[in-house]
Amino acid sequence: MSQVHVTRRYRFCAAHRLHTDLLSPQENWAVFGKCNNPNGHGHNYVVLVTIISGTPQGVGTIERLDHIVNDTIIERFDHHDLNGDPAFAVLTTTGENLVKVIWEILQPLLPAGSLRKIGVIETRDNYFEYAGST
Amino acid sequence: MSQVHVTRRYRFCAAHRLHTDLLSPQENWAVFGKCNNPNGHGHNYVVLVTIISGTPQGVGTIERLDHIVNDTIIERFDHHDLNGDPAFAVLTTTGENLVKVIWEILQPLLPAGSLRKIGVIETRDNYFEYAGST
Amino acid sequence: MSQVHVTRRYRFCAAHRLHTDLLSPQENWAVFGKCNNPNGHGHNYVVLVTIISGTPQGVGTIERLDHIVNDTIIERFDHHDLNGDPAFAVLTTTGENLVKVIWEILQPLLPAGSLRKIGVIETRDNYFEYAGST
Amino acid sequence: MSQVHVTRRYRFCAAHRLHTDLLSPQENWAVFGKCNNPNGHGHNYVVLVTIISGTPQGVGTIERLDHIVNDTIIERFDHHDLNGDPAFAVLTTTGENLVKVIWEILQPLLPAGSLRKIGVIETRDNYFEYAGST
Amino acid sequence: MSQVHVTRRYRFCAAHRLHTDLLSPQENWAVFGKCNNPNGHGHNYVVLVTIISGTPQGVGTIERLDHIVNDTIIERFDHHDLNGDPAFAVLTTTGENLVKVIWEILQPLLPAGSLRKIGVIETRDNYFEYAGST
Amino acid sequence: MSQVHVTRRYRFCAAHRLHTDLLSPQENWAVFGKCNNPNGHGHNYVVLVTIISGTPQGVGTIERLDHIVNDTIIERFDHHDLNGDPAFAVLTTTGENLVKVIWEILQPLLPAGSLRKIGVIETRDNYFEYAGST
Fold this sequence. Notes:
- The structure is a homohexamer.
- In chain A, a hairpin with a 2-residue loop joins β4 and β5.
- Chain A is 28% helix and 30% strand.
- Chain A is elongated.
- By secondary structure, chain A is an alpha+beta fold.
- Chain A has one domain: Tetrahydropterin Synthase, Chain A.
- In chain A, strands 3-1-2-4-5 form a 5-stranded mixed beta sheet.
- Chain A contains 3 helices and 5 strands, in the order βαβαβαββ.
- Chains in contact: A-B, A-C, A-E, B-D, B-F, C-D, C-E, D-F, E-F.
- Chains A and B meet through β1, β2 and β3 of A and β1, β2 and β3 of B.
- β1 of chain A pairs antiparallel with β5 of chain C, so a sheet runs across the interface.
């Protein structure tokens, strides 16, 4: 059986601010530091989606993935403020939460068992990876 | 005479939104597209500062430059919203304007004639460079 | 027991064209799009070979691997047209197939169990990985 | 006067083969080595186009450039064999010639004096740059 | 349960020389080649530390990791000669040994089970990875 | 007349230590900080050599340059300690001096006027460039 993993790279630019309503302004600052600055900052996010190639020849696999990721991830987050997205109504917009949010969006849209890993590069030095809960 | 150019690389993460009060909301959208989204987006900006090395042995050149750039550029823009900065009260926050703003800040603080070039990498595919007006 | 994984990076430049004789010219175009252009196109391929270091001090591990990979992979594919290679007489030259072909070539030439993973970077955005069938 | 240089990055994948009809097969091999292999090889080419920003706010500069480059460079060379292109009917498909061909195509299509530099990255270690004849 | 892996990137510059007192000078040269040159050479090492995020919101995880890695790895190895470090009194300073030394230093300082992987990039083409002995 | 600039990328790994005999140990430390650590440290140096392509078709240009650079730069500095090199008997091994030393070595070996620029990347954030004295 084919076991080739295909990783496709996507990008979006977004603003965000680390902040939670569960804490006071002073506590937010103590916990998040400059990442809590009121007007937010931003990143060039890179998203790496790893799937199992579904057909013997890989025909159409990447094209279909591109459509799904562009429609549900890039269109939604690119050139937006993550803090205004419903997915982050309660969650803070950390890389840990973002990578799980992307997994939760994509996993039901792909053939069962084909999604293997989501990676998010937030900055040159920060990388987050999620392979689902097991 | 020493002609070695030293380029030092700095980074900051910031939010921004392309928008000008000179245009109506509809015109802003027509001109800037998704870069005009109300809540802004953001980038991992890279700033490349090129100077002429001032001393025969280069002693202290980079340390002094680091202090100046950190105090006046990184502290000011990192984890902030560029649209809220006084430098962009009138100017839109394009890469073209940002690279000139950084030149105008640094040029008077460095020894006369030593600043040669400012480069700004906004995204993987967009690079802006300014060498002063002549 | 030593569990250090060593990944060594190699490169080759090759032409290829996505095409299968099982389909008509029209069907090939429908399936592969511009990748089916008659005269082919090409890539700078990067091959990442991951092995378990065989000796306590790692002495000679990389040198031996270099000889094997250069003799059997780089000499064979570098500056050639993948579509003309016997390995692709039946298979299309997708990244999915290329990464498996490289595994099949290298696996019998290395100490049993030492090959752990082959990665192929086809373009900046496409990565293929194979760890053997199990 | 605005002196900001904007560099925009594009990519295409193409096959090519170094060969000239002015030489015999033996001479071609002596001069070009493995780059003369009959079926060609290929590269992921990166094209860097540097222009002077034409308007005070940079509005629309990059969008217009994208249209021109996509229509005349990317559409023409991406997923093609450079040796089959009319521009290389006589010229060999070296990086030196490619960078000049791209300049000659783009220069008449852009506002007078606005094109400043074309760069072509052929492989990780080879870069070609042309700023016009003067 | 949260399964997000966070990878943080660190760097240090160090000298080293491949040499073991168990071998004669001639044998050292035969085994290590130019890496055995008496005065050593050096690298810009990159260290990738992968941990499981410990708290639901990831609060403080990276800050704590930075303190530990800076205090015990960067301070110790940056701008030093690895061959003079007690960890390499007996071991040669190969990438295989370095990645294990870093694991052994960090593992007891982090919450039980939270360290998942250490990666060391020695040169552009050499990568070493260790996930503990099991 | 052909004006194409060709930049070729080379690499070497070397140890070095910033130190000058003109200063006392205390003064050396004050000036160079950790870069003055007695046993030195090291870098993966990248050297970028830019020349004017000498022939209409670029035939043989890169091959000849490779031979010259490998024989006089890579063989000399790779896997050595820069501080032990005669070129640095008096000069400290700063990037400023290294880029000029490389220029002085290569310039007389290349056709008159063909060498245009030497670049040295010392670390991810430090770049030195020299185009000769004029």
